[in-house]
Write a structure and sequence with these properties.
The chain is of the alpha/beta class. It is built from 20 helices and 17 strands.
Length: 512
């Protein structure tokens, strides 16, 4: 029974145990992509590399046997750098998007393809939750947003982009319930929000959902800011805005309208009475510094890029007081980011704002790649509605339009091990140049999709099913042998293959 030391801790293990298993006996996690417990080791990814100080070599922990007297380090700077190289190499030939272009272009980063899948499946409440996870005021934005997401929609390369904004409006109009309890957590603290425009309302919505007691102060007669006083009522009827504000009220947010925060003592009292302040008063560059006592310049209040924190650590600011001329959707995104940062601060965790995940991107598609995506989409033309501002979709129209989506996101973006490790180790797709990227393609069964460009040849599915390595050398790919179908090759192991695949190469076709 060998005795070895791992990260300065001694452990005795049975003969034949690997270094990876020995580390796990100590509760030490070593990253793996190709390892499959209970199956023979494959040693294809090499991300499990550790440093054997007794030999001075880097070794793959998943296959290296634990030996008497070994001194192993699993997370040194040298080990981390080697893992980054492994990930850089894997990502250099990774042909897939983590998020669809519509999502990455949306200022609020809403998961648009997921919303559309949920609409197509008739899951309107789930679609509403997907929308409001990132976007407050969805019925408002469904009417006035200039839809930058649609400009990025790949369906536009074929005919016309998917009508994302109208689908968002349909979800809000269908599923928004004024009396629904939308609270998602139970934070503790009081937050003052100065300004009842889109950024302030969004901050109030997300903070109240997180359990914070919020009070909104505004000099105007009614809440809404630019949405009420600068937007044409033909585009945004007052009753739609009032309905969404009522949802925020029902979350427990208090509104103090016709209320002016006086400079000096008035503002000091506010700071004394609340745990955090959200500064979203709209466009007022001349008064910003003197009234709110935070750093500013001619363009507006100065904030940290990702946290929206001002020079005063308890004050967070967004909307037009930070950047004039904002789209409402961007102001709403500011509100979400501010709420996230305040939640971190009042919760006692590091204030880093919304964490930016690693993003793999396909970039510009070739014609044949568009054709490959079109095989899973309805070929019908974009569903248009009458009137200059549109009357909104009926149920049938929304279902038809949702089926036009190319679904070019990754179905496993939230639980992809490759993405997780790429983020942890700071990997880059640009470190190594391998020529033209892998051409996008999809193979389908009734329930599973396989995208070879996302495959890292870990061999897990080969060990579990009838899939096989095809070709030789650098051209080797995982595929279906002898011209068989994907369904036949996966057989009864389909669920295991989808679950164990460390990337989005194998995923459920209708995973909403």
């Amino acid at each position: 029974m060998p005795l070895l030391t791992i990260d300065d801790r001694a452990v005795t293990v049975e003969n034949g145990v690997t270094v990876l298993e020995a580390a796990r006996c100590l509760g030490i996690t070593i990253p793996t992509l190709c390892h499959l417990p209970g199956k023979p080791t494959f040693t294809s990814c090499m991300i499990c590399v550790v440093k054997d100080e007794t030999s001075g070599r880097l070794i793959p922990s998943c296959s290296a046997p634990a030996m008497e007297g070994m001194v192993i380090h699993t997370d040194s700077a040298e080990v981390r750098q080697e893992r980054k190289k492994v990930l850089d190499l894997l990502m250099s030939e990774h042909g897939g998007d983590c998020e669809a272009p519509c999502t990455t272009t949306c200022p609020a980063r809403m998961d648009i393809p997921l919303m559309i899948r949920q609409i197509a499946a008739g899951q309107m409440d789930a679609a509403f939750e997907t929308v409001t996870d990132k976007i407050a005021l969805p019925a408002v934005l469904g009417r006035i947003c200039p839809a930058p997401c649609e400009k990025a929609c790949r369906r536009g390369r074929h005919d016309s982009p998917v009508s994302i904004c109208l689908l968002k409006r349909f979800v809000a109009d269908t599923a928004l319930k004024v009396d629904a309890d939308l609270r998602a957590a139970s934070g503790s603290g009081k937050v003052a929000i100065i300004g009842a425009g889109p950024a302030g309302l969004a901050a109030a919505f997300h903070l109240a959902r997180a359990g914070y007691a919020c009070t909104v102060f505004d000099e105007q007669d009614e809440p809404g800011g630019q949405l009420r006083y600068r937007v044409d009522r033909d585009r945004l009827p007052a009753e739609i805005l009032d309905r969404e504000i009522e949802v925020i009220r029902k979350l427990g947010v208090e509104f103090r309208m016709k209320y002016r925060i006086e400079p000096g003592e008035g503002f000091k009292h506010l700071k004394a009475d609340y745990d955090a302040i959200v500064l979203t008063p709209g466009r007022r560059p001349d008064q910003t510094h003197s009234v709110w006592e935070v750093e500013s310049d001619g363009r507006g209040v100065q904030v940290e890029a990702n946290t929206f924190r001002t020079s005063d650590p308890m004050i967070f600011s967004g909307g037009e007081v930070v950047h004039a001329g904002q789209m409402s959707v961007r102001a709403v995104a500011h509100g979400k980011s501010i709420a996230c940062a305040i939640d971190q601060w009042l919760g006692g965790t590091p204030v880093v704002g919304v964490k930016k995940p690693f993003e793999s991107r396909l970039g510009q598609l070739k014609d044949r790649e568009i054709d490959a995506m079109m095989k899973d989409a309805d070929p019908c033309a974009r569903v248009e509605v009458g009137g200059y501002y549109g009357a909104g979709y009926s149920v049938d129209q929304a279902l038809q339009e949702s089926r036009r989506c190319l679904q070019c996101d990754c179905r496993k973006a939230r639980d992809c091990k490759l993405r997780e490790f790429a983020c942890e180790y700071g990997a880059s797709q640009k470190t190594y140049t391998v020529g033209a990227r892998t051409t996008f393609s999809r193979t389908r069964s009734p329930h599973v999709i396989y995208e070879p460009g996302k495959c890292i040849k870990c061999g897990i599915c080969v060990r579990l099913s009838g899939l096989a390595f095809l070709g030789r050398g650098y051209e080797t790919v995982v595929g279906v042998p002898f011209g068989d179908s994907l369904e036949s090759a996966l057989g009864s192991a389909a669920a295991d293959c989808v679950r164990e695949c460390p990337t989005g190469a194998l995923a459920w076709k209708a995973d909403a």
